[in-house]
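Standup notes
- DV: blocked on the single-chain target, sequence here:
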Amino acid sequence: MDDNKWILRSEKGKITGPFTTREILQKIKRNEISGAESISKYPGGEWRPISHNSEFYDFLLSHLSQAKVFDDDETNWDITPDTKSLKSKSNIPEKSLSKDDVEETPEFPKDDELIPSKVTHKQQVFKDSDGFDFSKNIVDKIKKEEKHRERKQAASSQKSKKHKKPKKKKKSLLPLITIIAVAAAIIYVLGTVKLETLVENHVQLLVPVENIQMKPEDVKEVAEQGIRDFTKDTFQGYMSAQKKFVQVLEADKTYGDIFSLLCLSHYNLWNFTSKNATALKKIISVVKLVEQFDPRSLNFYNCNNSYLILSGNTEKAYENLKSIIDKNADSQSQPTFSYYLLTKLLQKDQKYSEAIEYAERLNSVWSEWAAGDFLKAQLYFEFGERDKAIQSFKNILSVNPNNKKARVYIGMMRNKFYKQFEKSQEEIKASLKMRGRLDPNIMGLANYYLADSSLQMDKMEAAQKYSEMAYKFFPTDKKIESLYVNFFGEEGKVTLSDISYVQQGDQLFASKDYNAAQAYYKEALKINNKNTEAAIKAAKSLEKLNLGEESVEILKRSLSINPESVYVSVLLARFYMKQFKYQEAFEVLNTTHKKVRGHYKIYLMFAEVELEQQHFIGAIKYADKSLKIYGENAQAFVIKGRTYLLMNENKKAYSEFLRAIDLEPSNTTANAYFIKAYYRVLGMDAAVRRAKKLIAQDETQLAYHQVLGELYYEDEQFTQAERKFKQIIEIDNKYVKAYIWLADTYRQLRQLNDAKVNYFKAVNIDLQNSEPQLKLGLLYLETKNFKKAIDQFKNIMRLNENVPKVKFYYAKSLFHLKQYQKALELLKKEKIANPSNVESYLLAGEIYEILGQYLLCKREFQQALKYREFGPAFYILVSRCHRKSGSLDVAVNMLEKARGLSPNLPDIYRELGAVYEAKSDTEKAVWSYERYLFLAPTAVDFNQISNKVRNLSN
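- DV (later): unblocked, structure below
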């Protein structure tokens, strides 16, 4: 328990205290606090409403709800398996059920998501070609099997009672395992078994790994049974379903719809697994398999979106799901599983109204799947819709009185809505004794309400036991954590889980309190240094605080502990890339690549690093490798498109962006770059229309405004560009890119002071962004303010000396001030950091020529030739160095190359005349100079060269 003390101020202004946190909570429990009081830390704290205090908010919410304590008769729901008494008090039409009845097999969902894109003759797995419905036969068969099994078990039980002497053990361990499982469950309910034993009893996800031979009718029957198990929405149901679905796919992978069902089975079993990289690899293997056999179908998207959510990429999954639902909004067949997954995401974000809407859509599309009913009931419970929650859970129990999840919630509702604490405990305990496993989160809630009920009845020892159990099952739930820590958190006893710290960090990050968020993520890492999620989120928080070096250190430590973590490796490489440390980025990726081999994200990041350095061939090569592994990778198509744009292969770029948008219509980056490709291929008017259409769809998406401004800039409509960039700044005055583009526009309009002002604004918004600082230095260089330019380049190098070309521009400024040796030292460093920057070699060659070091001059120019082809001006420079060093024949060869590129360039003949003059070939020298005078009659040195011609002729 914390050592904080508090003083209370009532509505009338009466001040009492100080009280400990525990005493305040006890007062809330005894209804001595109404929730209208103010509270302050003692001594010297600020007054604030107690209902706004994080320590007490959840507890107040639970205990000061406006629900009255009803007479027990009003809430005396009969939830025993005797369904008659249950239905007599509900509005649900009665159905005749006996203990032998089983849930009816639902009709096969008429859903685009469950229709194979390849093999249409297997769309309806329940009916044969004559339309005969197999489901009745299957149900009858299963009923008979279950009756036979029950009779056999009863006979076996009677026989075991008669014979005290045990039988010999059979080879199968299944009965023994069953006995142990039941015993463990009973011991757990009695509170004498360690939670860890239950939590760590992880299930294994099953995936197709081989090919088996089965008759088509047998495959169909197994598929039917799997779907029937799936629709029960229970742990046992999903376990059985995944086994049957794997069997179907091993026999025939053209049952594309079965992939969706398998992936959703995995999704619902995830919390029962170890939730580690091994489990995630199994999910990925199914995604790859469905991509191979049913590509670009809703079956693929169902599996891929499940994977995205389970791997933590919920933002991407949310975008995908919204896009799929929007696409199918007017379709006769609705996207069932997209409704389900989106509802789960909205539930996690506590967006209950929207979540309930999608849950209702799900239920209307496939009412036979019990998950829709349960999800809707759960949402009503969490949203505090008491009557709807009660009715929903009663509806579930009317269909299946032994639904363990629903019965647990009935017990929890007695506590939450009616304050019937003793009865709540009885029903929750009774429900937990039922056969079957519950999701750990539901187990956590069940134990929370057991703890809360114990607390209300002043059974502190039991309350402590249940609260500890609740926290270990569900550490990310705020009310569970609050109860656990505030009531039973004596110093040194309670340790919050790393998951809980991550959850709290997420809330702070969402509210943009990055400093507090990074502190929570670091605490999570102290508890569990293998938590890669905490490391990644800590690094992102620190980046927001412009603490890039610390971000890198956290990721490096995490990667040393988790060397196979692709996500940490990719993020670390991206951070290095932002710092222009390309070699380090490659080394990180390569080290991880050697361990995991062939992960599409590693290849994708390789491609990004290559593109950033404008190594076009490498960028395309790695993007293609990524696509070979994961063909639905929109980001890879975007990288290829960007590369082709830079190579001026505009039609190819257009095609790549189109493929990216086809995969992800809402991908902002793909759409923005596609507008640029539109401009290059279809012209300005078409590109502007497309940009304006996207802006009309979402005016808040500033990337589309920006690209429209860039189009005006590229088309030299600078006044229009200025207006657009100003408009962006009006929408968001912190949008750095808009200030940079506005300053660039002013440079083109020769409004250089306005350009400088806007570069400064961009610098002040983001001090770590080198782009506006570099452009400001170039503005000084352009206006021949060399000393200010040098100061600016020095500032950039103090922040990050790896910024591309900053040393070159610094050297160029020194060159203009005739500080040649300092310039050469900087150029040497620039060539090491960026060996392909040919401008460094050209400037160094020019300096060496001035210094009379002609051999070094030749060497620099020769080095430049290794990196690119040049125009005639370059060969004139090279020729001059050769002439001055005495290599006259080589000088002539260089000039002949220049003539081959541009035969009428005057400067070629001026230099050629000088070479022949040095060779004492007067005739050719005169001819060359005369050719120069003919091609450049207005040349500054016309008279000088004319005199030279006369002297040589005489």
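- Follow-up: The first strand starts at residue 5 and ends at 9.
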